[in-house]
Specification:
alpha/beta, Peroxisomal Thiolase, Chain A, domain 1, five-stranded mixed sheet, 15 strands
Amino acid sequence: MGIVSSIGDNISSFTRSLKNGISGITGLAEREGPELSVDIGAEINRFSFSDGLSRYPDLPEELLQKAKSCARRSPFPVQASVLSALEAWQDSRMFAQKNDPERLGVIVAGESTTQNYRYGLHAGFATDPEYLSPRYALQFLDSHQVGVLSEIFNIEGEGFVVGGASASGNVGLIKAVQLIQSGFVDTCLVAGIVADLSPIELQGFVNIGAMVGKNKFQSPDQASRPFDAGHAGFVYGQASACVILQSCDVAESKGAVIRSRVLGCALKLDGVSTSEPNVEGEAAAMNRALRRAGVSAHEIDYLNAHGSSSPLGDSTEVEAIKRVFKNHVSELWVNSTKGLTGHCLYSAGVVEFIASVLQMEGGFIHPNRNLDNPIDQDLRFSGATFERDNVELAMSNSFGFGGINSSIVFQNHR
């Protein structure tokens, strides 16, 4: 696993932030253009691609030089993807395995990932169209990330981009599982992409009523309030997160580092084009994932909820959870990583999968920050500080605009 986020630029620092309930939400960096109706977010600050490359001492120099060559002039989202993928490659010791390039796959989870990059070029283009770099023809495409990652890591199997709005990360993980189960690849790198939104997208989310606006809280870190009665919309977050999935047989035969096992997953559409969440669709996704995992609801120890801090979204998910888990809700730990990271949009599912695995490994449940007045008294939400507990089976939910519901069930590996 690998990550670059507002609460940690690697797995170790991200873990510490989870345990301590550290929020990455501050004031938004200044942007050119009109004044917006939003001024807070959990952005990746002080990002340096060249400094990041120095953090992977175990990786072969040839690999690091290839990463530098491929991405040094690329937009920020591409560079962040490369760094999180390098950490995952090091973490899994893939560089020490003998890999058949045609048995490796890559899935880029995220859509329209170059909005802010394009927005920043507009003023210069309007003055002189020839100002535009020839690289733009490659770099504005989401599939550019597939090309960059496949070149760096010598991936010659299947690769593509998937989108699912806020469920994109989970969609990427699910498609990777299916690629491996179908026998098309043995190993798949899943990269959840930074949502580098331009001022237009930021204002758009405010206008639709999904994102929290200005001056609603005393400090920015109080604004993301999943499942709290004071929730007022999601807070924009940034993260690049990468997971390497491998078939169990191949992983065991190669002596790979195994951190968790995916048991089952599900993707369920509501058949709508709107932004409203749906109890039936969310419950169906969770139930399908449980059936495919071969486990019952009462066996799940922990649920990383979608929990965006949207009033309608949170209340809908609570109802769906209660339908699926019934009396077990009093024993099921529930939290939302978005209380710390904000809503990382495209990469949220991968970020929260990583957060869940780290909690399983560390025997803790991270805090539900700002949960002062829960909207439901039946669910077992974690509190203001982390809880010590052992988690054997976990579930992670991601729901997206357009009625895209997803759920993944996975198991601790000791």
